[in-house]
Write a structure and sequence with these properties.
Layout: H1 8-20, E1 22-25, H2 31-46, E2 51-52, E3 71-74, H3 81-101, E4 105-115, E5 121-124, E6 134-141, E7 154-157, E8 163-166, E9 173-177, E10 182-185, E11 192-201
Antiparallel strand pairs: 1-9, 2-3, 3-4, 4-11, 5-10, 6-9, 6-11, 7-8, 7-10
The structure holds N-oxalylglycine and manganese (II) ion (MN).
The site of manganese (II) ion has 3 residues, from loops.
């Protein structure tokens, strides 16, 4: 499946990012693909492949349950056809962002994340102090029939103390500028699945 770079959905994300730094697309993926990704995430969890997520990077990586309580596994190309299908879609979005906004996004890194009941991720910004390559965050939700009373909203901290809560409903994609938008994940009363990733710029390196 190849997605044209001028697909209206991709252009809408571009416009939103340019106008206000974030975009919410409630119906980004067809239901079938979302369901297959959810099944893949659950299967990996059952096989014990998801590990408690750290905070920070490299030597600074700490598992601190007071900060985030999810377990993750990074996705790599060639691991499974369903992930490869998603990566192809994400790559179309990367190309559109580059063509329209000249962001120079070089690649995408992403992981499945499973938040057990009660887990949360405290307010943070998606950029490491020692690595500023993460430019655009893209979170895809994999939860069937999520209801507001389940909690687990993604809370975005926008300008002037304004907040926006987004339900982690299956098939919904949230995209935002990694350096600009602080956010948190509220605790939920049911298991919460997502596929979270970042488009990265090329690192600075000497000639
Ligand atoms: C993250 C994150 C948001 C979400 O993993 O950095 O903020 O809604 N995830 O899962
Ligand atoms: Mn985050």
């Amino acid at each position: 499946m190849s997605i044209p770079a001028n697909h209206p959905l991709l252009l809408r994300i571009v416009d939103d990012l340019a106008d206000r730094g974030w975009s919410q697309q409630n119906i980004f993926l067809p239901q079938g693909l979302t369901a297959e990704l959810a099944a893949e995430c659950r299967e990996r969890a059952e096989r014990g492949l998801l590990e408690p997520a750290g905070v920070g990077r490299g030597d600074a990586l700490l598992v601190r349950e007071g900060v985030r309580g999810d377990s993750i596994q990074w996705i790599e190309p060639g691991q499974s056809s369903v992930c490869d299908r998603y990566l192809a879609i994400v790559d179309a979005l990367r190309q559109t962002l580059n063509q329209q906004l000249y962001l120079g996004l070089a690649d995408f890194e992403g992981h499945f994340a499973l938040y057990p009941v009660g887990a949360f991720y405290a307010r943070h910004v998606d950029r490491f102090r020692d690595d500023d390559r993460r430019s655009i965050s893209a979170v895809l939700y994999l939860n069937d029939r999520w209801l507001p009373e389940h909690g687990g909203q993604l809370r975005l901290y926008l300008n002037e103390g304004q907040t926006l809560d987004i339900e982690p409903q299956g098939g919904c994609l949230v995209v935002f500028r990694s350096a600009d938008i602080a956010h948190e994940v509220l605790p939920a009363s049911r298991e919460r699945l997502s596929l979270t990733g970042w488009f990265r710029r090329r690192g600075d390196s000497p000639l």
